[in-house]
Amino acid sequence: MQQRSQWRAIDPRMQTSAPRVAINGAPVTATVSKRVLVGGGIAILLVGLLVGFRFGYREVSPLQARLSATQQEVEQVQGELTAATRQAQELDSQLAELTRSNDGKREIGQISEFASKGQWDVAIGLAEGALAAQIKPLSEEAKRSISTLWYGASMDRLYTTVRPSWSDAAIEGQIVGRWLAIERQADTYSLPKERRWSSMSVATRAYTAGIWALADAAFRRAWTAGEAGDVPIGFRYALLRNWGYELAFRGSPAQRDQAIRLLGTAVAIAQSHPVGQEACDDLKRLERVMNLD
Questions:
Q1: Are 102 and 142 in contact (CB under 8 A)?
Q2: Cα separation of 290 and 256, whole Å?
Q3: Can you give the pTM of this predicted structure?
Q4: pLDDT tens profile 106-137
Q5: CA 170 – CA 151 distance, rounded (Å)
Q6: Which of 31, 64, 222, 242 lies at a CB distance of 3.0 to 4.6 Å from 200, suitable for a disulfide?
Q7: Is 120 helix (H, G, I), strand (E, B) or coil?
Q8: In this structure, is the dihedral angle defined by the CA atoms of residues 147, 217, 170 and 286, taken in order, positive or negative?
């Protein structure tokens, strides 16, 4: 029996390859072109860049987007805080300017102008507003000047109060009340006495204006304070006589009782001091008129 041939796999690694033989019999060596090598390198580089871009590029995650937005909000808030701080500094500067002591020159000029025109109410209102100001308070000297102007305007208005042609007890009583209120307000303004009218000066001006009740009230205060001067008796007599005469012959019949009392007091003064006999004559005349009525 013919035996089957044994086939043995040949390991290619065990094979020895014979060099190629050139036509002329010399061995052939495998060579690679430089252009091929450069082109291959470029291709490999491009492939690497594409792969790197593909795997290296990532879309911004929602968290990163939120962090970016938060950073923008923080920067915006910081900007607003900076602006607010700057504004606060400007307001502080303005407040410091407003609260700085005011010399009152502008206010003094305005008040003086209105007072010189006889616009007492306007002058008084401006003075009171300036003295009550809290935003930009007046200096002490300005306070004294403006309170002095206020006092003068208030007293001038007091003496120009419209009155009827005869003595009216109600109106004259109101005038006396206003004078006392002016003095109290002057006390709250700390207006020195030397910048006010003395009681006797008030009485004298009221006597000249025919405001008998005010003249009487001011004289009594001056007498009590020892400020009546050297002519208290003569002034008192003249005041009572003129006041009584006006009530007796220019007032209403209801005022005659008061006229009798005033003229009677004036007569008593005249009996003790050489001041005149007018009151005695007026009283006799009034008695005759009343008897005729």
A1: yes
A2: 9
A3: 0.63
A4: 999 999 999 999 999 999 999 999 998 877 77
A5: 24
A6: 222
A7: helix
A8: negative
